[in-house]
Write a structure and sequence with these properties.
This protein has a single domain, classed as Alpha-Beta Plaits (2-Layer Sandwich), CATH 3.30.70.100. 33% of the residues lie in helices and 36% in strands. The chain is built from two helices and four strands, in the order βαββαβ.
């Protein structure tokens, strides 16, 4: 499992945290360790999940992954 801290643009409150955590949690082979305003810490199988998958999930929540 690979650990990654994702930087997220546009989050401002607790509801933002809930939306991002929910969408990241839908990804298979991903363990969401922590979500805070502006960032998320995840562990994932990098042979099955890519940064593009994280980007799409974060966009579904209404925010943007900062690369």
């Amino acid at each position: 499992m690979k650990m990654q801290e994702l930087k997220i643009e546009g989050m401002t409150c607790g509801h933002c945290i809930m939306h991002v955590k929910k969408e990241l949690g839908k990804l298979q082979h991903v363990q969401v360790d922590d979500v805070q305003i502006g960032k998320a810490k995840v562990q994932y199988d990098d042979s099955k999940v890519s940064l593009m998958d994280f980007s799409r999930a974060i966009e579904r929540a209404g925010y943007k992954l900062v690369s």
